[in-house]
Amino acid sequence: MGDLHNNGGFAENQLSVHHGSLLDFLLFSSPMDDIFTCILSWTSYLRRRFIDFVENLVVQDVYRSKGSVSVSSTSYTEYFNSGTCQTSSGQGKEFLANTDSGIVNTNRSMQLRQAVPFIFQGLAFPFLALRLAWSSILVPWRFAFCYVKRTQAQVYSIISRMERTLRGSSDDIGWLQRTPGMAPVEDGTARFLELLEAIRNGEHTLPNSFVYLFVPGLFSNHGPLYFVATKKFFSKMGLTCHIGKIHSEASVEHNAWELKQYIEELYWGSGKRVMLLGHSKGGVDSAAALSIYWSELEHKVAGLALVQSPYGGSPIASDTLREGQIADKETRRIFELLICKTIKGDMRALEDLTYEKRRVHHEA
């Protein structure tokens, strides 16, 4: 930060011959050697002035941040104009001397360490400004990217729901027939029509040694004429028949238990075995009763006839309650309101007729 004080005298600065303005260095009227000498001197002068300027900023920042030491601005000016400092070799410290503020005792290394943050802050300011500007530019792009991704996900979800809705139960229909180990299906339509025509003409081969139990289907409790005409027709033929008074909107498991009680009551009351005729969900309930309680009903049941029973599942129930399709939650709420709240039934009555539930019961 200046020339050292040696033996009571001051060493002359190499540029002490140039005390004029900076234009003195530009007057190159001397020979070539003098021209190079002047250029070197000019470069050294500029370097020294730049170093002095940086050191001045450092020292000012140090003393500005140091509240316990007060140094006036004239002290800095006089110090740099004098270009001198005094070093004490015994303690390795410097004393900055001037007549206005006295002697300030400080440690150069401490000053430099304290000045480094100030210099770095000044150099880092443009980078911080650039980073802030870059972040400001990226924010709208990030929001736009997130919005596009969210919109894309919503579009894909809608397309997937539409495909699932339109496809419906096309993959599930006939699963029971395609199950390995199942007996082949025979088309008995022609034989059924032949027997039906004979019955209409008063010809039938139904034995009178059974008690016929009609098991109604879903929502049958709300049809007062349900199975009435069929019962009259059987009675005219001299056959004993009954309509099962079960809650058709209950679950399959619950109705299976109710039918078990019904079969045992008819068997012990008439002494005849019971022939079950199940229509729609009633056929599923009847098959469940025989499957679950077969050990108790084996000798009390003559057989089971299914009419329009969705034993393998119903596409209406599956398409209504299938998740992942359009308006699946809204549709389920509507049926819950209809079945559970309005007619006081059980939502499982419809769920048990889906392909998924029928596969589970078949495997069990």
TrEMBL record:
InterPro entries: AB_hydrolase_fold. It comes from the Eukaryota. Gene3D superfamilies: alpha/beta hydrolase. SUPFAM superfamilies: alpha/beta-Hydrolases (SSF53474). PANTHER family: ALPHA/BETA-HYDROLASES SUPERFAMILY PROTEIN, OS05G0557900 PROTEIN. This is GPI inositol-deacylase. The lineage of its organism: Eukaryota, Viridiplantae, Streptophyta, Embryophyta, Tracheophyta.
